[in-house]
């Protein structure tokens, strides 16, 4: 499908959201480099992860070795990172839920069926909303 190059879901068995999101962002950089993609724009719904990539936040000590390797990879890539609100990140949320539910590392070269509707909403810049009961 137009503009789709791949996606993945993984399971880390980690309860700390920052750790899981930063680990996933590092894995994205590693996967992109392995596939020869030298230009990346990472959108993340964690402002803390974005701050780490911008250098204004410390990396959790358990991830420092992986982080240092990631920074070396980024030195040979054109890289941009930006914050996106959760409502704009529905595809990532569905993939994360898939990883937690199935407890597997999975890569897709074509859009998986459970992601198709949200991918098309995103592709056509249709808004997503989150409603809460007050």
Automatic annotation (TrEMBL):
One of the record's GO molecular function terms: nucleic acid binding
Source taxon at top rank: Eukaryota
UniProt-listed Gene3D superfamilies: Ribonuclease H-like superfamily/Ribonuclease H (3.30.420.10)
One Pfam family per UniProt: RVT_3
InterPro entries per UniProt: RNase_H-like, RNase_H-like_dom_plant, RNaseH-like_sf, RNaseH_domain, RNaseH_sf
Domain RNase H type-1 intervals: 13-98
CDD domains, sorted: RNase_H_like
Protein name (record): RNase H type-1 domain-containing protein
Organism: Lupinus luteus
């Amino acid at each position: 499908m137009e503009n789709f190059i791949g996606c993945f879901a993984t399971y880390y068995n980690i309860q700390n959201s920052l750790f899981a999101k930063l680990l996933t962002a590092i894995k994205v950089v590693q996967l992109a480099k392995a596939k020869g993609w030298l230009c990346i724009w990472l959108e993340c719904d964690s402002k803390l992860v974005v701050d780490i990539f911008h250098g204004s936040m410390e990396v959790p000590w358990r991830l420092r070795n992986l982080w240092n390797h990631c920074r070396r990879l980024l030195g040979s890539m054109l890289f941009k990172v930006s914050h996106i609100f959760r409502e704009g990140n529905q595809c990532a949320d569905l993939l994360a839920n898939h990883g937690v539910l199935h407890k597997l590392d999975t890569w897709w070269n074509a859009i998986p069926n459970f992601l198709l509707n949200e991918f098309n909403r995103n592709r056509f810049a249709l808004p997503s909303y989150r409603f809460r009961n007050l």
